[in-house]
């Protein structure tokens, strides 16, 4: 009968030995069942293998946790980046920068002051040369960004994620919702509605149309929510 290739291992009780210049350590010896020899080096290799395996397992777990953390962070960043209000604000900002660059290309003027009905004007000539080419290049790139984000907003409006109110939709006395709170409209403006002070002061605050999440016309008899704020209430 052939002998098994994998030897069995027997352990000898640990001896306490001293290393010169260092602390005392415990040395455990293993005896090979076939040869009957005791081997400290075999025992140390077994310990090193166990430590290495444990270290690899711990490292793998840490890598998995870090990957999950990064994924959650990326998801949060993506969610914030595509928030409907953020998307509309980004479009407005890009369009404002586009108009500013267009003024550089066209040239522009501004009134410094008026003396006895006479306007003192500062004129700026259109930019030229390499600078003009750089302005044109960045405007073309920005136009692509505007097109992309306008597409995102259109999809959000179509799916109900975003509203698309304007001055033609809302009238004075209507109720509008902003971040869960309802307010009575004091005045309708071109880009905003004026509502009673959000913090309860005696003034009015302006809210952009894309920040509104709900609207009820004044002719509706029921109040939209118990948290509705009226002009008179804000002035108390």
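Sequence proposed for the structure above (236 residues):
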């Amino acid at each position: 009968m052939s002998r098994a290739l994998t030897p069995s291992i027997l352990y000898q009780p640990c001896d306490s030995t001293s290393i010169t210049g260092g602390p005392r350590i415990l040395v455990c010896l293993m005896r090979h069942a076939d040869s009957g020899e005791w081997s400290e080096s075999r025992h140390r290799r077994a310990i090193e293998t166990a430590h290495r395996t444990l270290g690899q397992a711990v490292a793998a777990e840490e890598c998995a946790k870090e990957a999950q953390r990064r994924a959650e962070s990326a998801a949060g960043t993506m969610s914030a980046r595509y928030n409907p209000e953020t998307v509309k604000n980004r479009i407005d900002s890009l369009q404002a920068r586009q108009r500013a660059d267009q003024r550089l290309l066209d040239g522009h003027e501004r009134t410094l002051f008026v003396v006895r009905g006479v306007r003192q004007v500062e004129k700026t000539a259109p930019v030229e040369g390499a600078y003009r080419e750089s302005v044109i290049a960045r405007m073309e790139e920005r136009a692509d960004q505007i097109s992309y984000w306008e597409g995102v907003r259109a999809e959000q409006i179509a799916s109900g994620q975003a509203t698309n109110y304007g001055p033609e939709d809302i009238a004075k006395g209507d109720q509008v919702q902003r971040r869960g709170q309802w307010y009575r409209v004091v005045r309708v403006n071109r880009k905003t509605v004026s509502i009673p002070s959000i913090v309860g002061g005696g003034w009015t605050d302006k809210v952009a149309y894309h920040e509104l999440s709900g609207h009820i016309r004044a002719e509706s008899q029921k109040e939209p929510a118990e948290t509705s704020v009226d002009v008179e209430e804000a002035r108390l």
